[in-house]
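Need the bound structure for 1,6-di-O-phosphono-beta-D-fructofuranose, inputs here:
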Amino acid sequence: MTKSALQVARAAYKPKMPKALYGNVKIEEGAPTQSVANQDEVKKLFPNTYGMPTLRFVESSEKVNLPAINVGVILSGGQAPGGHNVIAGIFDGIKNLNAGSKVYGFLMGPGGLVDHKYQELTADIIDEYRNTGGFDMIGSGRTKLETKEQFDKGLEILKKLDIKALVIIGGDDSNTNACVLAEYYAAINAGVQVIGCPKTIDGDLKNEMIETSFGFDTACKVYSEVIGNIERDCNSARKYWHFIKLMGRSASHIALECALQVQPNICLISEEVEAKKLSLDDIVTDIANAVAKRAANGNNFGTVLIPEGLIEFIPAMKALIAELNDYLAHHQEEFNAVPKAEQLAYIKKNLSAENAAVFASLPEGVARQLTLDRDPHGNVQVSLIETEKLLAEMVGNKLAEMKKAGQYNGKFASQVHFFGYEGRCAAPSNYDADYCYSLGYTASVLIGAGKTGYMSSVRNTTAPAAEWVAGGIPITMMMNMERRHGEMKPVIRKALVELDGAPFKYFAANRDKWAVGTEYVYPGPIQYFGPTEVCDQPTITLKLEQGK
Ligand code: FBP
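Answer from helper R.:
Posting the output first, comments after.
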């Protein structure tokens, strides 16, 4: 296979780790833990894995001899830069415990465990993928591991391969399922430990003990590079407003981090839209006013960042989507029988007056997307809604009205972009390469110590890697009860952007200046070799969160 010069050079990179992981490790136990909320309910559901202490690794002079162990790994959900390094860290870690240990990868996500599709990951395979992006070493998938049948089916293959520990590398839902699996295997004395690792570019799996999910750093840097390039283009041509949607599902962490890196004219934050109960018209009016202000200074160009989940956070849209989901769940066949030309009118007629008015205000394309694209659970797939087009079009219409009223006298032309897949499989930044390898190595230490129901944790990551703190956090500690598909379930609490958190406050304090001025910052591409202040910077979000 032909490799790029960077790939060849990058293969030789030795990820940096916390000092405690280089030699023998001693585990220090913290106090017993509680779940973040609903303690009684969560405790009842996890009698074997609730209340365990946090764990912190420290250097030790004592060498422990452990028997060889077989470990299984699963990559779950969307790709995130650094996943291969987690697996490399696990591999090197368990070989360090005992050279006879083996790693098996389950193929194409959790489904591989249930369907018994696996591959032994030998040193040759691992070496091929060190410091590379993507999940292609074993593939990933979105099968949810949640039923007893799946757990039992999985146990058959784990027993057959003599696998004593399973590492699930995933987001909040996958780690919730890892915790349920850990509890189940502990309850039936299956002899299989389950360890989780925090993955997702969305950055919404974090809490006091998990500083960030891996992949967020690299993905944001890739998007910021490209947005910076667009900003420079728009500042050169001075004729376009660029509407840029960014992945991130519900949370706006990616949009916020990119805004902190590139200082755009406007960045919408879904969590703020919800808190202020803004309507679509409020958002459009705000953007149009900013466009008019810049136009008054002769600047008919700008950049607008839009988080992927925005639409769901606009209260009126949320209500409309909920009614549509409900209505179509019961009238899908009737709707399908309506001729295409009459479908929008049919929907309008059958909605409550308030939602019908919101529906009628949408551009036709978006209105259609809301009626057509539904997932297997009957929900609108909001990520498919082209919010960037919707806003560009509605701002254009609003400016035309303002022009008629003599409130605007500029030129408005827009370009739209959606960045998501461009960053999910990028070669991990040094931060993610180091962080992921350390998370994997940490998982191997947890396995060696016989732990289950823990998530790998590596903290203090704004300091040099040697000072990072590795350990394990009981997954039950991150849980609360939430309504899912009409039932109360224990789940890891998703971390949305906090409006009283330092990253948002910094953004809010500067955004008016950025809106009127042209204060773009051009981060440029990720650098893998060179001075540490260029190559080893964590995200601005993390630095601000840690008061740096
Ligand atoms: P995960 O939470 O699984 O890491 O998903 C990340 C993500 O990239 C989201 O930002 C995005 O909404 C989603 O995956 C898209 O997934 P898919 O490509 O499977 O449609």
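Comments: The two ends are 43 Å apart (CA to CA). The pocket of 1,6-di-O-phosphono-beta-D-fructofuranose is lined by residues 77-78, 80, 171, 200-202, 247-249, 308, 383, 420, 424 (CB under 6 Å).
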